[in-house]
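Changelog note: in this version the structure field was regenerated for every chain. One regenerated record is shown below for reference.
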Amino acid sequence: MKLAHWLVSGCLLLLAACATTPEVSHSMSAPAANVVDSPFSTSGRLAVNYQGRGQLASFDWQHSAGSDQLNVKTPIGTTVASLRRDASGVRLLADGQERRATDVESLTEDTLGWPLPLSNLAWWARGLAAPGIQAEQAADGRLQQQGWLIRHSQDATTHLPRRLELEREGLSIRLVFSDWRGSDASSPLSTQP
């Protein structure tokens, strides 16, 4: 009983902490032609609500143009799932089992019952529409792409990504970034001359 109390208290403190950082909504647009997919690493909190059931977790994510490593953890820091994407496909380690697939969306759909759009999440997290895929602005300012409604916020001071909210058919995913480290600390993307 005491552990459950501490877990709930910890979650409430984490949620309260994210409300104290000033954020501004950021209009998402297609990336410029000279923008390249720069590596970054980030950590933060993840909230998923699927068909009325919610889950909270923390995460660590390392991204490069050719790969992603995403670790999902309990609020007290125990890794419960590890997802790796690279040129050979996708590997998910969870519940003592390893699962493989050619793409993240089908693997997470089969495993979790809902798709994690990791292929384009790196672009959306940086406030850009994924390149090469049709996108449009919804009436409320959110980006619509791949069946998702997407809202991006950035830190009002540093202009680094702060929050990403995704919604689609009974599923909402919210990521709150507490730490962002990229190849250029002042910009989450780089450009080619």
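Spot check on this record: Helices lie at 2-18, 104-112, 118-125. The longest helix spans residues 2-18.
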